Amino acid sequence: MLPYPQIDPIAFRIGPVSVYWYGIMYLIGFGGGWWLGRRRAREVWRGWREEQVDDLVFYIVLGVVLGGRLGYVFFYDFNNFISNPVSLFKVWQGGMSFHGGLIGVITAMWIHARMRGTTFFNVADFIAPLATIGLGAGRLGNFINVELWGKETDLPWGMVFPDPRAGGVARHPSQLYEMLLEGVVLFIVLWLFSKRPRPAMATSALFLLLYGVFRFSVEFVRIPDAQYGYLAFGWVTMGQLLSLPMVLAGALMLWYAYTRTPAAPPKETSGKGKKKPSGKKRKR
User: Fold this and answer.
1) Among candidates 176, 172, 145, which has minimal Cα distance to 159?
2) How far is the C-alpha of 201 from the C-alpha of 96, rounded, in Å?
3) Which terminus has fewer CB within 10 Å in the chain: N or C?
4) Backbone angles phi, psi at 234, to 5 degrees
5) Residue 115 CB: number of other CB atoms within 10 A?
6) Which of 243, 228, 206 is CA-nearest to residue 98?
7) 10-14 and 159-160 as β-strands: parallel, antiparallel, unpaired?
8) By C-alpha distance, which of 220, 243, 215 is closest to 230?
9) Rounded to an integer, what distance in angstroms lies between the CA atom of residue 115 and that of residue 100?
10) Over the stretch 98-126, which tens digit does the pLDDT of each residue have?
11) pLDDT digits (tens, 9 = 90+) for 166-195
12) Where would I find the beta strands (DSSP E) of the chain?
């Protein structure tokens, strides 16, 4: 059994203002994705420019925060929202839904694609590996917040979480499982997979497929949300119910990408949809 590291959820205070680790994790996710996105944009064959990454990150931030919070409220905490609507704005207390955030990000990518005059999957395939940084950082934020822990275990890495609701017994640190799978492993796979041209939607499909499989698997050792419990058969959770369509969609999209779409690099377009001349290759 491993001792839980006593981490204050508040990273530091500036006068009356408290800065939480949970919020810092989001900054790390956005900042890391922006930095890597600008690096990837220097590869001419991708058809991106660095300033376009800046614009995309702005829309992604809005999509993640608004979609993630609304998704949590409507998927997991709707009854509490009805009785206390102000809870919608208490983001610092935790409570962000990946599936809601995904809907917000999809909306943001669609808007950005329309503005650039490019395809949706040109944007989605570009951003998919970068999104994993925020996923991993967010799960670390859950761990620091002492939330979303797992079931009881006698494994040597089980932890006793400092929350009375955890019962004072060793539990799976499921937040760290998800940080490893959804953050580290998913990033490595997608980053390596997308280092060379792939068929349109292939990278996005692999993201959906692997995330869905990872999330579905970890749910077996994670305590389900108290307001829902198990939905069926004594083991099906809301997280699994929301992840299953991602697995199916990812598998179908991957099959479709490789049976229909050639692996050709995208062509850069202007904001109005007109193709720009490629010019000279950028020196690195």
Assistant:
1) 172
2) 26
3) C
4) 75, 10
5) 15
6) 243
7) unpaired
8) 220
9) 23
10) 778 888 888 999 999 998 899 999 999 99
11) 889 999 999 999 999 999 999 999 999 999
12) 10-14, 17-20, 159-160, 170-171
Residues 6+ apart with CB under 8 A from 80: 87, 227
Which amino acid is it at 7?
Answer: I
The Cα–Cα gap between 29 and 35 comes to 10
Give residue 64's identity as a one-letter amino acid code.
V
- Of 40-44, 87-91, 206-210, least confident by mean pLDDT is 87-91
Reported pTM? 0.81
Q: Are 265 and 45 in contact (CB under 8 A)?
A: yes
Report how far Cα 180 is from the mean position of its chain's Cα atoms. 13
Check pLDDT > 70 for residue 283.
no
Rounded Cα distance, 36 and 255, in Å: 28
150 Cβ neighbours under 8 A, 6+ residues apart:
171, 172, 173, 174, 177, 221, 222, 223
What whole-number distance in Å separates Cα of residue 106 and Cα of residue 104?
5
Q: Which residue has the tokens 């904001």?
A: 271
Give me 96's structure tokens: 């962000």
Tell me the torsion sign for CA atoms 125, 129, 131, 132: positive
Helices (H), 50-165: 50-76, 78-83, 98-116, 120-144
Task: Compute the average pLDDT of residues 61-84.
Answer: 78
pLDDT at 137 over 50: yes
Cβ-contact 30, 131 below 8 angstroms: no
91 neighbors 248 (Cβ within 8 angstroms) = no
